[in-house]
Amino acid sequence: MPNLDPVTVGVVLVDDDGLVVEADIEARRMLGFELSGPTAPRWRDLRLSSSVHEPPAGQGRLVRREGPDAAPRWFLLSKRPLRLAGEPIYVFNLADVTGIVSDLHKYEGFFTNAVEGIFQSSPEGRFLAVNPALARILGYDGPEDMIGRLTDLRSELYVDPADRDKLLDGLARDGQVTGLETRFFRKDGAVKWISQAARMVRDDTGATRYIEGLNIDITARKKAEEAYNDILERYRSIVTGSIDGVVLCGAAGDILTANPETERIFGLSEGELILYGLRGVIDDSSGELARALETLAATGRFRGELTGRRADGVAVPLEVSASGFPHKGGANHGVWIVRDVTDRKQAESVLRESEEKFRRTFDQSPIGASILSLSYRFLRVNDALCRITGYAESELLEKSMLEVTHPDDVPETVAWADRLLAGEFDRYEIDKRYVRGDGGIVWVHLSVRLIRDVAGRALYLMPMVQDVTERVKAEAGMRELLAEKESLRLNLEAVFRAIPDAIVVVDTRMRVTRTNRALTDVCFVGDIKTGPGGQQVVAGACRRGCFAALRETLSTQKPVIEYRVECKGQNPGRVVVINSMPLTDETGEFNGAVLLIRDITRLADLEKRLTDLHGHRGMIGKSKAMRDIYSVLNQLADVDTTVLVTGESGTGKELAAEAIHYGGARAKKPLVKVNCSALSDELLGSELFGHVRGAFTGAIRDKVGRFEAAQGGAIFLDEIGDISPRLQLGLLRVLEGKEFERVGEAKTRKADVRVIAATNVDLPERIRAGRFRADLYYRLKVVEVRLPPLRDRAEDIPLLAEHFLRQFAASFGKAISRLSEEAMGILMAYPWPGNVRELKYAMEHACVLCREGELLPGHLPPELLSQRTPPAAEALPAPRRGGLTREAVRAALAAAGDNRSLAARRLGVDRRTLYRNMERLGLS
Questions:
Q1: What is the C-alpha separation between 641 and 459, in angstroms, rounded?
Q2: pLDDT at 615 over 50
Q3: Residue 324's beta-bridge partner residues?
Q4: pTM for the structure as a whole
Q5: Among 547, 612, 657, 847, fewest CB within 10 Å belongs to which?
Q6: pLDDT value at position 612?
């Protein structure tokens, strides 16, 4: 019986430093210490635990302590943390359980030495105690290892957690469970079958204390059962799932059972088959079934072909294999394997047809084919092989393959054939030479296959022969090309070293693998040095902005073409063009990139100046009329046709001609300009076409004309409407035939020149007046670009004015900040009869007078100030009280040419007020 004497419990309070603060009388008595001394004892001196943090809060621990008489005492120690006045303090409860532990020692031997697994667990799913046998069954190092590792038996021990629920339900219902078979996980993950017996242990109040029970390893028995069931299931599945019909019959042919395939073959259920027997489903009109049963009874086996009858009367060809066996000392039984061979019979018919097709294909194949005996004699050949070898079929059938093989290739041929016959492979392919019947040599590609019978015995060789003479010749040529390629590679190496552009080659990890000598000259990046990780890096002051192109190529495996970079290192202002190209190896595998760096600083400066001078942007304007002209100029730049530029004086006809020329393919060739109205008739002819010495008075030497000087480029004929009829005729000849003659010379010269003409006169009116040739006009007017006057694109006036202001302020070295609103209003109101040219010179005048700061109306030319108040402004309707009217806003915008700043000044409001009213009135 267990010791039921009362258990003594004591309480000890300890602070966070391990000093005993208080203890009740039971605790002092059990542990033998006092608190009345000069210093309080420390917790570790009580020999219950080494730290105030053990055991963890909420957990108990059984502690062994030597008593004053050296006898061991056992205490159950637990801890609970508190806070007093903000300081942590720990309350230790200890119970003297020495008597209980002594009683437990009586049962320890049985618990430890039992051969079956014994356990105690909490209802919540944690082991309280296990014996060594259970730990050994489940592969743990010992009970402590098992208890420490398994914290949730349901999820960690049970393979099917529902079995744990079943156990708990049975215990709750009956108080005990026996013979519950379940599966446990071993420590190594393996599975054990366990038979469980357990009971619920309760206290005097009926509350559950723990679960105890017995776990018996039944894995071996379960494996035996599973093996037995597996064998039964396997045989059952073999018979049921067999692709052949399986029938169990008696000695007289009565059917005892049949599988589903038998039912499918005969179209009858198993019950109907049992009713009919073999004689009811197999045709015995010729006695085949009777002979089969006699053979089976006499020899114990039968194999042959019979004819079955389906339920619908259709005959079914059957391949039958039967074997007999004695049945419990009675009459013999037989197992009949029945296979429906309808498909095979059909396949045999198809095979016969296929064989015939094969014979035709063999004979008519464009590739040489033959059948050889194992001693290499020709047994059969087709026409293609006869053509390749130059022998007739009858001649080849008297020879062996070795006789038509080039003598130098015979050893290799025999060696490959021996390996094929030895079973190293089923086929081989080689290139070899045949000696033709006429003595010529032909290269062939030979593919030889060994044909075997169903037993695996070699029957014959089947070579396929293809004439590859041309390919061999091509390969020889390829070898020559490779030698030439190597020579080219060496030349490229020399070019690589000598090329003036900087070259950097990197691998896929951005490590430099190669550079040329120009790198330092072009980029000033210093030397290639080895970094701390063994990689090569570029040293020097360069910030390596160029390497962005390399990184782009490495990440996308695509080239970066013509990427411009302005250097920011030791030589700021230098401009280089970057080309980064991906590198691939012989297999096409991406393996890095190459960076080419070309110094184009001088070219960039020239391009910038050229763009400023001749780009479309030199024609300032954002109006729709100008945008339409820009579109036409872009289209004209791509075609080589004659263009007529018309418009009032000062509208920018010369700029349009420059935009056409420098935007096209002839941009790198000269653009020659001729002012036709500034020269006399004789001088203009000489200027256009040139002259020879003595052609007229004063012609003391040969002179090259403007057309000849513009060869390959373009000629700009300004004021074309002022030339004489004689020159009109000569010019028409140049336009029509692209030919001209120098003045005083009979030699005809070619004129590869694009003609761009311009005029500010009304050419159709001059044609009507007889002063201009209509045929020349239509030849010039292939495409007409009509430039609008400045008064028709007033919205461009602020852009032009600001452009000229910046230009002249920079030229004069003056700090002029902006145009005042009053000055801009005057510019917007002026009609500009001289167009853009007049505006340009007006701004030059203003910049000369303005010293610095804002350009005011007083700086403008006097003629502009005389028209300061436009009549249209006086006619505007006055805004009504409470806001602007729709009519007033529309009238102001119309009068200001849609310039909103000028319109706001006309209405007497600022721009923000105008914008708000436009939005309110829906005019934005």
A1: 81
A2: no
A3: 334
A4: 0.35
A5: 612
A6: 47
CA angle 179, 184, 187 (to 5 degrees): 150
The residue written with tokens 């060789």 in the block is 461
Query: Coil, strand or helix: which one is 426?
Result: coil
Three-class HEC string of 165-184: HHHHHHHHHHCEEEEEEEEE
Cα-Cα-Cα-Cα torsion 673, 676, 678, 682, nearest 10 degrees, comes to 110
Rounded Cα gap, residues 159 and 385, in angstroms = 71
User: Binning pLDDT at 50, 70 and 90, where does residue 543 land?
Assistant: low
DSSP, residue by residue, 814-861: --EEEE-HHHHHHHHHS--TTHHHHHHHHHHHHHHH--SEEE-GGGS-
**% of the chain at pLDDT higher than 70:** 89
Average pLDDT over residues 287-295: 90
| pLDDT of res. 539 | 41
Q: What are phi and psi of 567, to 5 degrees?
A: -65, 140
Dihedral of the alpha carbons of 92, 95, 98, 101, in degrees to the nearest 10: -90
Q: What is the mean pLDDT of residues 251-276?
A: 90
- 105 confidence band (pLDDT: 50, 70, 90): low
The mean per-residue pLDDT over the stretch 609-622 comes to 57
Over residues 235-246, mean pLDDT: 81
Q: What does the pLDDT look like over 641-689, one tens digit per residue?
A: 999 999 998 888 888 888 888 888 888 888 899 888 877 777 887 888 8
Interhelix angle for 900-907 vs 821-829, to 10°?
100
One-letter amino acid of 851: R
Cβ 615 vs Cβ 630: under 8 Å:
no
The full DSSP string for 274-331 is HHH-HHHHB--TTSHHHHHHHHHHHHSEEEEEEEEE-TTS-EEEEEEEEEEE--TTSS
pLDDT, position 8: 77
Average pLDDT over residues 359-367: 75
Report the phi/psi class of residue 166: left, alpha or beta, with left for phi > 0 and alpha for psi in -120 to 50: alpha
Residues in Cβ contact with 218 at an 8 Å cutoff, skipping those fewer than 6 apart: 181, 193, 194, 195
Please identify which residue in the block is written with the tokens 């391990």: 18
Q: Is the peptide bond before 500 cis (omega within 30 degrees of 0)?
A: no
Cα distance between residue 509 and residue 276, in whole Å: 82
Through-space distance between the first and last CA atoms of the chain, rounded to whole angstroms: 104
Query: Residue 767 carries which side chain, given as an amino acid letter?
Result: I
> Of 903, 868, 874, which is closest to residue 798 (Cα–Cα)?
903
Strand blocks (E) in 453-559: 458-467, 502-506, 512-515, 528-530, 536-538
- Residue 381's H or E segment, with its range, is strand 378-381
CA 917 to chain CA centroid, Å, is 53
pLDDT score recorded for residue 142:
92
- Dist CA 417 CA 45 (whole Å): 94
Residue 481 has pLDDT above 70, yes or no: yes
The H or E element spanning position 685 is helix 681-689
Print the SS3 string covering 539-606: CCCCCCCCHHHHHHHHHHCCCEEEEEEECCCCCCCCEEEEEEEEEECCCCCEEEEEEEEEECHHHHHH
Which tokens in the block code for residue 76?
């159950």
E strand spans, 388-527: 427-435, 441-452, 458-467, 502-506, 512-515
Please check the confidence at residue 380 and state whether its pLDDT lies above 60: yes
239-253, 400-414, 539-553, 758-772: the lowest-pLDDT one: 539-553
- Three-state DSSP class for residue 73: strand
Helix axes 681-689, 725-737, angle to 10 degrees: 20
Other Cβ atoms within 10 Å of 731 Cβ, number: 25
Nearest to 196 by CA among 235, 228, 227, 167: 167
DSSP 743: B
What does the pLDDT look like over 546-566, one tens digit per residue? 777 788 888 888 888 776 676
**Residues in contact with 753: Cβ distance below 8 Å, sequence separation at least 6, in sequence order:** 707, 710, 711, 712, 713, 714, 715, 734, 738
